Amino acid sequence: MVYIYDRNFFTPNTTEEKTLFGNLKSFQNPEHKYSFTLSVDRPLLICVTIDTCSQLSNQCFQDIITVYKQNTKNKIIVDTSIEDYVNSFFDSAVKRFENDGVDPTDIIVLTGQNNVSAFKESFNVPYQVYTANLFEASFYNLMLFTGQQMPDIKSRKLKKHFISYIKNPRIMRVILHGFMIQRSYDKLSYYSWHDMKRFTNREKLHFYDFGLVQNDADFTSLIPRLQTRQVVDDISLFNEWMLNQDVIDHGGINLIHETHFSLDLLVSRNRHCNLDMLDAPGKFFFTEKTFKNFYYGIPFINPSIPGSISMLESLGYKTWEEIFNFPLERMNYGASMRDYFDLIDNIASMQIQDLEDLLNSSKSMEMRLHNRDKFLEQNQLKKIIKILEAEYDK
């Protein structure tokens, strides 16, 4: 039996449903041998979630250290899986743990990034690190918490070709937004763009690279439409994690917008990065943008991250690129994005009834059902439980 200290320590910008502790609490069943306790008379795992936007309170630090020192076999599980990177909030927290007497071998880090060695090297993390995608469980638990009913998977009557909810304007999302606006495909979509960023020379150069504009006048004329705020739902409600019934019933292909932190960091540090010269680094991090499709039973493609098809397949999920005879996925950012532009062009050119027939085909329906079943297995959380069992038994 694994004993977990019965208090959730997490930074203020995190919600309990997204934490390791919160997901373990929601997932309890007799098959999994872990228990929560406030008793300190046995070894404990102490769950601490640290995001990239806020720091633990002094009281949290004091309480964590007090509990840790009650038993020499206690360990601190530092959950950073809310993102695929860490920053100074993580660095200062683990440094304070060590300064307050925590043995570095008792600090166990959980990351959402699939590439552990790259994570440790990129962010100089000297501790034992494990990878698992907690968003799979977080999305499911949020739906349960909010009382959202899981819709039946059935044939749908389409009104729009696409669903596209773009939140933070990271580079691949900005380029795709430029493509969708330049082609007026936002009119064929349940479309959300609500970050009022300024479009500058950096974006203009990327638009040149992808042939979205031919000259400065083209770019200038596009800016008002690029900066027009578009929303589908109340964005204050769990930041667009949910889809409304009209979107679920009548939206075509969901364009999901996962990102690479490493790419965004590189772009932010340079005046211009030619994406045709950059290959994806084999790092993957899937969020609610991906997992909501399995819960709602929505067909999807991911135009942003090269290699995501193979990675999702390795997790047991199906993607819809094959339905459209998508070419072999390429790991170059520029080449991959152009392939997806061609695919989106092809989908947009279809009559809505033809797209509806394709997405309601027996093959597509089987894929939707398969993804729902795989999602309900909650294999990523089961993976984490096995990690905790192994660490507790050391």
First and last CA, distance: 13 Å
Question: Count the strands?
Answer: 11
* Strand arrangement across the biggest beta sheet: 2-4-5-6-7
Q: How many separate structural domains?
A: 2
Assembly form of the protein: single chain
Largest sheet: 5 strands, parallel
Count of helical segments?
16
Structural class by sheet pairing and helices: alpha/beta
Give the low-confidence spans. none
Radius of gyration (CA) equals 22 Å
What shape does the CA trace take? globular
Write up this protein:
The protein starts with a strand and ends with a helix. The chain is globular, with a radius of gyration of 22 Å. The chain has 394 residues and is of the alpha/beta class. It has helices at residues 20-26, 58-68, 88-99, 116-123, 135-146, 171-182, 201-209, 216-226, 245-250, 261-268, 288-296, 308-314, 333-349, 352-359, 362-377, 379-393, and strands spanning 2-5, 9-10, 34-37, 45-49, 75-79, 107-111, 128-131, 162-166, 189-193, 253-255, 300-301. Helices cover 43% and strands 11% of the residues. Helix 2 (58-68) links the parallel strand 4 (45-49) and strand 5. The longest helix has 17 residues, at 333-349. The protein has a 5-stranded parallel beta sheet with strand order 2-4-5-6-7, with helices on both faces. Strands 9-8-10-11 form a 4-stranded parallel beta sheet, with no helix packed on it. The chain has a two-stranded parallel sheet with strand order 1-3. It has 2 domains: 2-131, Rossmann fold, CATH 3.40.50; 148-377, no CATH class.
